[in-house]
Amino acid sequence: MSNNCNNSKLSILTKGFFKENPTLILVLGCCPTLAVTTSVTNALGMGAATTFVLLMSNIIISALKNVIPDKVRIPSYIVIIATFVSMIDLLIQGFLPSLSASLGVFIPLIVVNCIVLGRAEAFANKNTVFDSMLDGLGMGIGFTIALTLIGGIREILGSGSFLGYQFIPSEYNMLIFVLAPGAFIVFGFVMAAVRYFVNKSEEKKKHKAA
Amino acid sequence: MTAKKEASIWRLVIVLTSIALIAGLALTGVYALTKDPIEKGQQEKKDKALQAVLPEYQGTVVDTVIVDADNEEIPVHLAIGENGELCGAGIETYTKKAFSGRFDLMVGFDAEGTIVNTEVLKANETPGLGDNINKNKSDFALQFNHQNPADFQLVVKKDGGDVDAITAATISSRAYCDAVQRAYDIFMKIKEDYHE
After folding, report:
1. Domain edges within chain B
2. Are strands B101-110 and B86-98 parallel, antiparallel or unpaired?
3. Cβ pair B31:A90 closer than 8 A
4. Are the Cβ atoms of A83 and B128 closer than 8 angstroms?
5. Contact yes or no for A95 and B34 at CB 8 A
6. pLDDT computed for residue B105 by the predictor
7. Predicted local confidence at residue A192, as pLDDT
């Protein structure tokens, strides 16, 4: 019994990684996905910032779920989310100025990232604080995985570098992958690949069960 | 789970107000905590740019702000020598003709109006094309150093000037010239006013 319980807790955390990946399976939060994935560093920074906001807002919202009346839940969630976004924005500006130079405009936009409000509505206002914490962390990590995958491919093909370390001379770079059309192309291919592998592993599980 | 009771209007007001209040207080705390590092970071960035455009200068620097014809505020850092003479200036200029709309440069001049160095402060040009205005990407910006705009036409060669444009980024190159020219005009005006 206890083993079963642990399993379900673990699955709350891990379902966000691939099975219910917010970006690649649920296709939420595409604006930051397409805009900041020009390099791995940007993708990791954005992923970490969003994970922090998701984690904190999920915790607070699930703790307050019985206090907040249904009628004003959306404005309340927005205030809570916006507070954490402003906090992380100020902290990044203060202590990581180089990251804020490259992510500057996109950090405040986490407020309207569908993933954050989506998890608040779909999970945090129905579940316990601990479960919501796991859910926020898992979804945040899933978002970071998706951004890093896309960012890595775009940086390697478009700038010939990885984490800023150049290994393909700039004459051979495919510029289109740094620009917006490249973002859509890579996004599509990564989404297709992840869906293929997720479906395959699901089928295997069903097969075993049968 | 039982359905929640219909909440009264007062409950709504009280809950939302207290959430906003707590959020405001929390933000005040973080703001107070990060205010100094943010200001310090911006000052450091400016100092670094000024150091890059006027490397040999050691005296006092006077900061002023000039308002140009388009109502843009242009911060100017005047380098003043021991006897109060004008030794040069770092001017935070801008252009609105860039490919992405606008970028900001710092341009340093010596007393004669010769360009000492230029530095990109804030730009959002296309990666791989327009962002070659950055010195770590190409040598484009270096050709301005040690040139006096009095006998160096700040216009790309395609338009009959002296500046080698970046391949496939003529608009960004023209914009760079526009920004440097603006800085030069401001510097010459300051120089004239200073002599009086």
Report:
1. 8-46, 54-195
2. antiparallel
3. yes
4. no
5. yes
6. 87
7. 93
C-alpha Rg value of chain A to the nearest Å:
18
Task: Among A80, A94, A158, select the one facing B34 at the smallest CB separation.
Answer: A94
Residue from A76, A92, A126, A161 whose CB has the most chain B CBs within 10 Å, to mutate: A76
Q: Which two tokens stand for residue A108?
A: 């405040």
Count H helices, E strands: chain B?
2, 5
- pLDDT of A152: 92
Candidates B16, B44, B126, B129, partner chain A, best to mutate (most A CBs within 10 A): B16
ipTM above 0.90, yes or no: no
- Cα separation of A14 and A24, whole Å? 15
What mean pLDDT value characterizes chain A?
86
Decide: helix, strand or coil at residue A91: helix
β-sheet bridge partners, residue A42: none
Please answer whether residues B187 and B113 qualify as being in contact, where contact means their C-beta atoms are separated by less than 8 angstroms.
yes
B126/A79 CB distance under 8 A: no
What span, in angstroms and rounded, lies between the C-alpha atoms of B169 and A81? 41
- Average confidence score pLDDT of chain B: 82
The number of C-beta contacts closer than 8 angstroms across A and B is 70
In chain B, residues 44-63 whose CB comes closer than 8 Å to chain A: 45
Does B15 contact A67 at a Cβ distance shorter than 8 Å?
yes
Contact criterion met (CB below 8 Å) for B181 and B164: no
Would you list the domain boundaries of chain A?
17-209
Contact B19 A80 (CB under 8 A): yes
pLDDT of residue A1: 40
Optimal mutation site among A36, A70, A71, A171, interface B, most CBs of chain B within 10 A: A71
Query: Per the confidence metrics, is the pTM higher than 0.80?
Result: no
> Any idea which of A194-198, B53-57, B163-167, B173-177 has the lowest mean pLDDT?
B53-57
Is residue B98 within 8 Å of B172, Cβ to Cβ? yes
Residue A107 scores a pLDDT above 90: no
